[in-house]
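Hi C.,

You asked whether I'd gotten around to modeling the 735-residue construct. I have! Everything is below, sequence then structure, no commentary in between.
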Amino acid sequence: MNLQNFRFEAGADGIALATWDMPGRSMNVITEDVMRELSEIIDKVASDAAVKGCVFASGKSGFSGGADLSMLQAIGPEAARIAGAEGEEAASRFVLDNVSKLNGIYRKLETCGKPFAVAIAGACMGGAFELSLACHYRVMADDDKTRVGLPEIKVGLIPGGGGTQRVARLMQTGDALQMLFKGEQIRPAAAKAAGLVHELAKREEIVARAKEAIGAGRVPAKQPWDDPKFRAPSGKVFSPAGMQIWPAANAIYRRETYDNYPAAKAILHAVFEGLQLPMDLALKVESRWFAKVVRSKEAAAMIRSLFISMGELNKGARRPAGEPKKLRKIAVVGAGFMGAGIAYVSANAGLEVVLLDREIELAEKGKAHSHKLMSDQIMKGRAKAADRDALLARIQTAADYAALADVDLVIEAVFEDPAVKADVIKKISAAIRPDCILASNTSTLPITGLAEHSAQPDQFIGIHFFSPVEKMLLVEIIVAKQTGPRAITEAFDYVRAVNKTPIIVNDGRGFFANRCVGNYILEGHLMLTEGVPPAMIENAARMAGMPVGPLSLNDEVAIDLGLKILRATEAQVGPQAINPAQKTLLVGMVETNGRLGRKNGKGFYDYPDKGPKRLWPGLKDFQETRLDPDSIDVKELEQRLLVTQALEAARSVEEGIVVDPREADVGSIIGFGFAPFTGGVLSYIDFMGVKKFVALCETLAARHGARFEPTPLLRDMAAKGDTFYGRYAATRKAA
C-alpha cells in the first residue's frame, strides 16, 4: 500500500491499527487521496488472512473535522459545464458518481467480512463520524474535548456517507431527525446513551479498548441492519408508531425552515424513504438526495460563506502581515452587561483580566456575571467547580486606573455617550504603557472621533462585540483614519484568542452590521405605521429567513437605545438622516408609554412573569389605518425586509466601509442572522443576479420610497454583468 495519510501497522495479535495522521495539517480531513487510501486499507484487511480486524485512530489531537468541502465546491461548476456540453442527464450522472464514492467505501468496510473498530478522541464530525458509524465497534474518549456529530445541515448539505441511514437505524426516529436537523456536537455521555457509540474510556485507553474488543471476539463483522431480522428502533414507517412521528416531523420542518432549506427537506425524504428499504438501496436514496442538494444555490452559498470564507477569515485572510501577538493580560473598563461579557470570554480563553469600573462594587457585580455563566455550565454538566474557580481567579476587579499599568490591551466598554467615552479614554491613556493598544467597544460612535481623545491615535481601534457576548460569534474590528497596522494585528489576534470570528471594516457611523440591522428594524417600524398587522410583520421576517422579527429584535436591543441613536444621528448629521415616522413611533413607545423593550418587560411585546411573550395590543394605536391582511402581499414584505439590509450592505461597500465580500456575508449571518440559506447580504444579491436585484429595488422604490433606490455601484454592476465576488476578487487576493 502506498499510504501518505495513514500509518498501517499489523500487530502480532493479528489486529491492525490504521492511524490517520495527514502530513502538514493540524486536522485530518477527507480528501480524494484519503478516500483512496481508506479503500486500500479495507482491501488489505479483508484479503490478509493474518489480519483478524482493524482499529482506526487519529494521530492528531482531534479525530477529524470531516470532508474537505472545497471538493464539493468544485462539483457545481463542473456539472454546469457538462450540462452545457453533454446535457443535464450527463451532468446528473457526473454528480451522482462523485458523491457516491464515500458511501461505497464505507459500505465496503462494513460488509468486507472483517471487524473494524474506531477509537474516537477530540472532534469527530461529518464524514469522519460516518466512517465511525460504518465501523462495527466505536470507543469514545470520555473527556470534555471529544464530540461527535453530523453538522452538514449548517452548510446547506445532508450527510452523504450513510449518516442519514445509520443514525436512523441506531436511534429512535424522532431523535435521529432532531440530531440531523440541528447538526449539533454530541458529548460522550449523550452519544453513549443514544447508542451512537458502544463504549466510553479514558483518552489514553481508547485504542487498547478497541483492540481488546476485537481480540475478545466481541465485535461481529456484520452490522445489525444487515441481519434479516433487524427492526429499526421506532418500528416500520407505516405503522401506528411511525404515523405518530412523520406528520409531526413534517410540521416541525415547515415551522422551523419555511421551506427555505433544501437540505432539511432532503433529510426528511432520505430518512423516510431509506427506512423502508434494505441498506444498499437506502444508501442509494441518500446519495441521490445528496446529489440534488449539492447542486442547489443554497448549498453553494452556504458552503462558500459558512465554510470556505469563514475558514479563510479565521485564519487571517484580512489580517495585516506581522508576527502573531500572544496577549497575557487585558483590561475591560466598564463592568456593565457588555463589559462583563467581554471579561468572561477573555478569562474563559485563559487571559488575565482587569475589570474596572468607577466603583469597586460595580466591578464586582460585573465579575458576578462570570460566576453565573460558569455556574450555569456546571449545572449542565459542561464544567466543574474547579473550572469556575480558576476562571474567576483570572478576573481582577478594580476602581483605580493604576491597575491598567501592566496590561497589553484595554477595551473601553462604558456608556454609549461621546462625552463619557472621551473622559474615560483620556484617563485610560494616562494610565497605560506606551505600547498598549486601546480599543473601544462602541456600537455606533465613529472611532476616528473617539481616537482624538487618545494619547496615541495610531494605537486606537474599535473592537465591537455583539450581545450577548458569550454567545455571539462575530466581532467587528473598526479601523479609524489614524489606526496603525500594529493595532489591527493585535486586535485581530485578541479576537481569535477569545474564539470569535473577526471582520475588519473601516470607520463610519454604525460601521457595517448595525447599519444593516438598523435598516431591518426601520422597515419593521414603517410596516407597522403603514397598518400592517404586527404579527404579519414578525411572521414575514421568519418566512424570509431571519431568526427573529424586527419588532422582537428591537425589544432585545432596547427601544430607548434606538431612540437615543436616532436623536444623536439627527443632531450630528441633520433631520434628513432620520425617518420622521420612525421617530414618532419611538417617542410614543418610550416617552409616552414607557416601553423600553425586554429590559423593563414592556416593548413591542409584553413579557409576563409566566408564559411566553406576546405582542402588545396597544400597537394598534400607532396605526392610523389598519390594512386588511388578505390584501397584503406577504412575499413583498419578505423582500422588503431582506432587500433593505442587502442594499445597505451594498452602500457600505460603495463607501469603503467593507472592502471584502466575504466579511459582509460571514458577518451578516453570524452577526445578525441574515437568512443563512442566501449565503449572506452580498451573496443574496449575487445569486439573485445584480440586474434582477436592481429591478427589484426599483419596483420597491416606486411603491415604498427612495430608501429602496439602487446605488450607483449596483447600477454600474448591473450594466456590466458584474457580481460582488467577481468585481472584488482582486481585493480578496490582495488581502
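If it helps when you're writing up: Residues 235 and 242 are 7 Å apart (CA to CA).

Thanks,
B.
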